[in-house]
Amino acid sequence: MNSKIASGSSFPLGSTLRPGGANFSVYAKNATSVELLMFDDIDHDQPSRVIPLDPLRNRTFHYWHIYAPDVKAGQLYGYRVNGPCSPEHGLRFDPDKLLLDPYARGLAIGPNYDRKAACRPGANLGSAMKSVVVDYRGYNWEGDMPLRKPFRGTVIYEMHVRGFTRHPQSGVTEHKRGTYAGVIEKIPYLKDLGVTAVELLPVFQFDPQDSPPGLANYWGYSPVTFFAPHSGYSSDPSPLGTIAEFRDMVKALHRAGIEVILDVVFNHTAEGDQRGPMFCFKGLANDVYYILDPQNGTYTNYAGTGNTLKANHSVVRRLILDSLRYWVTEMHVDGFRFDLASILSRDEEGRPFPNPPILWDIETDPVLSGSKLIAEAWDAAGLYQVGSFIGDFWKEWNGQFRDDIRSFLRADPGSIAKLPNRLFASPDLYADQRRDPETSVNFITCHDGFTLNDLVSYNAKRNEANREYNRDGCDNNYSWNCGVEGPTDDPSINALRRRQIKNFLTLTLMSAGTPMLAMGDEACRTQLGNNNAYCQDSELSWFDWSLLDKHADIHRFVKLLIHLRGLLYTWKESSATLNLFFQQLHIEYHGTKLNQPDWGEDSHSLAILIAKLQRPYVIYFIFNSYWEPLEFELPERFQKSRLSWARVIDTALPSPEDCVEAECAVGIKGHRYYAQSRSIAMLLAKI
Length: 687
What we know:
The structure is a single chain. By secondary structure, the protein is an alpha/beta fold. The chain has three domains: 2-132, Immunoglobulins (Immunoglobulin-like, Sandwich); 156-568, Glycosidases (TIM Barrel, Alpha-Beta Barrel); 584-686, Immunoglobulin-like, CATH 2.60.40.1180. An eight-stranded parallel barrel has the order 12-13-14-15-16-17-18-19. It has a six-stranded antiparallel sheet with strand order 20-21-22-29-26-27. Helix 6 runs parallel beside helix 7 (357-364) and helix 12 (491-510) runs parallel beside helix 14. It is elongated and about 90 Å long. The termini are far apart.
């Protein structure tokens, strides 16, 4: 059999099935020896086959490669790599550890998997994750392709694959709860809600044991690979079954017209710092994959997780691009949201880079052309690039929108002056660049922080369940409990909270930009004040579907807002740039009296008339975050037309009067509108 072993090829990287066997190729700079180990079972502590790679025959530059006969899809394998162990110089070779293939399309985690065994000295073959040879060519896509919808008209729904359907009240088939297949069963709900894209929290295979003792790795921001989908989210957890089920989900979402955006983590890995495990990158080329302190070889920590990927090294750039291309071409995803994306703008020593090669690589790659690219434009070390992220076509999570809208609805002093910028796609951040209005991804809540219900119910976080003495999570939440901390039976407090929730939803969905909603906010999901539920794989984090009946009015309100956005949204046919967009609008600012807006520190109200040229209607927004009702004068004329106003939205009114279809708008008598305290109204007039 050994006589059939050939030298193989350095390209492509990873394991590739070929007639009669498979080619294996891995990058291992500075390695002195490499062995390919194959296993018959995930928990075997001895390989069934060991193939040493000859450094003369099976090495091209820094790539070790071999063709192995009689290898089929499903074969378990890993690498044993030897070389100098000199941590102070960035080298950490350890021939005792089984290493994963960085390009493995499938990973297997057995019942004996032990993260700690990968941290301590000694062999870990029986307790290690193992790479899997995958044949991904035979899947029947039935003509499916990435949808490539324009950002214009996009409404994003950020969701956790497991948390979306894991709750017993989800109504999903029991063995499919918390899986890709479970998402398929809930597609009619997403379609009915009106969202056009789901943004999935990390689905790359992550380390389930990378969590505090006794808790879970729920969010999944600790990848061990950038190619294999997480097997814990599959009703068939076998590597091949997981890939097929993920594809089934993507195909089904596409059939419903819903795009799939992946939250991707290219800033760090699950290997942590010098105390962390050795899974893959540390044992292959530690000094290539990670940004290290040049003085002592320790890990930099710009991600707040123990290590930082050296994203602008040529080898890591290739890995990132190959991963993105794979998910687009072979898994048909529509886009990516890049976690802590500012790390990708750091050079090989961790300094901010004016023109980061990896960011331009991603933006200009022809395979990725048309894919949605969204940056979380900051990192854990204080690099904040909202409004200045490198690139022409990247969209950005707009943290300023979140903070300023929260501040306005809390009635903070000076918050009124910031409101127009956030309503009109943040021109203070983006107008000087070649950006369109959709560059601003507008959100109030996301997985990280309070839920929308908790934002109006708690002044302070309640993270004791995370066992970190409430020291974790953000302390500056711009939240307001409306007078009582936590749940209450006081009907006046609960009514105010519901009004505030509707205010937040209105501002998110009626502002120019790309709106994003967080899973369950449409049903007032609560985490009981926990604003950092990264380790809570429980009903605390799951979507409790019984809330839809309890909060049917909020669910209805969200659905109608999304529908109204599609029908009446002034900026639906947005221009190529934000500057041109403003040239097509007529905007007037008013206060309680016409033409007298109050921009003072103590002002908490504003009215805005918006008309788009060549459109047959005008919109009048009334924003009152003051704690008393206010009466607003209404414009009687626009240009040469006499205006007759009708109410579409008033967040102070009970359901179903709070939001109605455009054709059901309620006419306003006279030329004044009485706005209740802490409310938003939207009026419509035809011209």
